[in-house]
Design brief:
Blueprint (H helix, E strand, L loop, with lengths): L3 H28 L1 H22 L11
Amino acid sequence: MIAPETHLALHHTRAAELHALAAAHRLATSAAGRPRALRTRLGWTLVEVGLRLATPGPAAPAPSS
């Protein structure tokens, strides 16, 4: 069985590793945040175009002969 002091020391070590990983992830994602906004805007524009193509427009008047 692990002594409580050893368990606590391992816990602190693992917590420090996780904090470092989280900080590195935050730095990596904040630097790449701008292209994501462009991708999101482009995606919603494509959705809007798709909805316009999928919905029927107003009925055209019948040709008079």
